[in-house]
Amino acid sequence: MKDIKLTKPSLLYQSTFLDFVKDVKESGYESYTHYVKAEKNFSEFMNELIDMSEGVNIKKGWAPCSSYWLIDNNEEVIGVIRIRHRVDNDSLEMAGHIGYEIKSSKRKKGYGQRLLELGLMEARKIGLQKVLITCDEDNVASKRMIEKCKSKYKKSIFDEESGKNILQYEVDTVYD
Q1: What is the 3-state secondary structure (H, E, C) of the chain?
Q2: For residue 131, what pLDDT is reported?
Q3: Which residues partner with 71 through β-bridges?
Q4: How far is Cα 76 from Cα 21, in angstroms, rounded to an integer?
Q5: Which end of the chain has fewer CB atoms surrounding its CB within 10 Å, N or C?
Q6: pLDDT tens string for the chain (176 positions)?
Q7: Strand order in the sheet with 152-159
Q8: How many Cβ atoms from other residues are within 10 Å of residue 12's Cβ?
């Protein structure tokens, strides 16, 4: 586990990132929508990630968002974490500061927990002392990961779009 690292998106990982995207698509994750452009035009996708992290050309109602890729010792992208720099409207509150995915073949091996821990360190560097993290009530693995980060349960919100309860947790970015 110590050989993994969190890195900013890079053209160096284009091939393995596209493998990750294929996995997300085949897994049926709704987060695939974040990656559609990567399959069509990787350079444009990379430019959009840079713009999002700098708060440039973002859509109304969105917030600046920094993305990081979890890389294993084989230089393979095995996870992605997105950190929104603020949560200041209802839509963003439903999503929280942090969104993440782990490649299906790497789940249940501790990579998700490590991705979240490293992501919290990056959130702190952005200037966030506390973050809002959400997960579907029925996503037991994600709920467990969030709770291991010394989170405080805030509330449950019913998401009319998905028909699911969304759990909200507050997490201090100073992680021991």
Answers
A1: CCCCEEECCCHHHHHHHHHHHHHHHHHCCHHHHHCHHHHHCHHHHHHHHHHHHHCCCCCCCCCCEEEEEEECCCCCEEEEEEEECCCCCHHHHHHECEEEEECHHHCCCCHHHHHHHHHHHHHHHHCCCEEEEEEECCCHHHHHHHHHCCCEEEEEEEECCCCEEEEEEEEECCCC
A2: 96
A3: 5, 77
A4: 12
A5: C
A6: 668 999 999 999 999 999 999 999 998 777 788 899 999 999 999 999 999 999 999 989 899 999 999 999 999 999 999 999 999 888 888 889 999 999 999 999 999 999 999 999 999 999 999 999 999 999 999 999 999 988 999 999 998 888 899 999 999 987 55
A7: 5-7, 65-71, 77-84, 98-102, 130-136, 164-172, 152-159
A8: 11
Tokens read off for 27: 């897994």
- Residue 125 is encoded by which pair of tokens? 């560097």
- Of 66, 60, 59, whose CA–CA distance to 85 is shortest? 66
Amino acid 109 reads K
What separation, in Å, do the N-terminal and C-terminal C-alpha atoms of the chain show? 17
State residue 175's pLDDT score: 54
